[in-house]
Amino acid sequence: MADHGNNSPSLKKSSGEDAQMQSGETVTESVNAHVREHAERKAREGDERYADYGGPVAAKLRTELADVQKELADYKAQLARYQAASKAGIPLAHADRLKGETPEELEADAASLAKGLGSSRPLSKARPAPSVGGGVDAVGDTPSLDPMKLATAVLNRIKSH
């Protein structure tokens, strides 16, 4: 890619970059290395926008970014464990026991744990239908919500026993 006068770094790959990528370096690491090299070169050239690139503020921001990225990875892993536990029908309280890096590994471990816990089927996603009254009060055949009648009926029932 050609430089169009906007001082942006060229994205053209060199053979040295190919060797780095083949040595196991991730794309993120490669991009970070290029950004770091570009910023250091600009700082040496006197560009004030890059003066603090290697300084304490930038180091603190890089540390905070790494912390946030780790926290995000932890949340994603926890979500995957919860999904595998739910699919296998085991309580979410046991999700932290699951081991595995991929959803398939987590699901296999969850199925094994479910078998050990005695869960033979996944939990139903349907909720039971609520059952609503239809009963009658002790005083008569018609339901009554009058507190005095209800209290009298309870008192009569207690006295009769």
Gist of the model:
This protein is mainly α and 161 residues long.
What is this structure's SSE topology?
Layout: H1 15-22, H2 27-44, H3 56-88, H4 103-117, H5 147-160
Helix pairs in contact: 3-4
DSSP, total strands: 0
Mean pLDDT: 75
The poorly predicted ranges are 1-15
**Helical percentage:** 40-55%
Termini, distance in Å? Answer: 95 Å
Structural class: mainly alpha
* SSE series: HHHHH
Provide a count of the helices.
5
Computed Rg? 33 Å
Tell me the overall shape.
elongated
**Quick one: biggest sheet?**
none
What amount of the residues lies in strands?
A: under 5%
Structure characterization notes:
It is a single chain. The protein is mainly alpha-helical and 161 residues long. It is 55% helix and 0% strand. Helix 3 (56-88) crosses helix 4. It starts with 14 loop residues before the first helix and ends with a helix.
Keywords for this entry:
about 160 residues; single chain; disordered N terminus
